[in-house]
């Protein structure tokens, strides 16, 4: 018997009963649910594209300036006989060190401000959800109370705080109802011979 090509291909791609690839590889056809999917190109925002291009050009210009400044420091104050892979702190200008420290301080403040704002935003969101849940719970309790009051007016046999004593007295004084019986196949009711015997 010649095995099916699909089964043979699956056998090659499986190891110990588990597939090697997590996703469906390209050699397999797409799923039936994905046959009618059409990939549409994403429409780019012109303002966003302009900002990204501007930021990228600014980033390259700033990085080039930093590289030139560091190269000048290394060439002017560095020791050429020393190891080129080891950076000597003496070659850095005090102005560059001050710029770096100032930038680190500004970044730290911005990071703390962001985390503070994000934390407050999450707390406000949780409090808003809690208030919404409490309001829905109050509405649900009001609807249940209104439904209970409407049932109290319609049904006279409902037990309330006012008539609970009367209802208990009525229950205690009412005759005992025997539910210990069985129904035969013909529909006749069969009662036990005594109160303790099961129905036959």
TrEMBL record:
The keyword Manganese does not apply. It is found in: Mitochondrion. It comes from the Eukaryota. One of its GO terms (cellular component) is mitochondrial small ribosomal subunit. The keyword Disulfide bond does not apply. Keywords: Mitochondrion, Ribonucleoprotein, Ribosomal protein, Transit peptide. InterPro entries: Ribosomal_mS26 (IPR026140). Belongs to the mitochondrion-specific ribosomal protein mS26 family. PANTHER family: 28S RIBOSOMAL PROTEIN S26, MITOCHONDRIAL, SMALL RIBOSOMAL SUBUNIT PROTEIN MS26. This is Small ribosomal subunit protein mS26. It comes from Hydatigena taeniaeformis. The lineage of its organism: Eukaryota, Metazoa, Spiralia, Lophotrochozoa, Platyhelminthes.
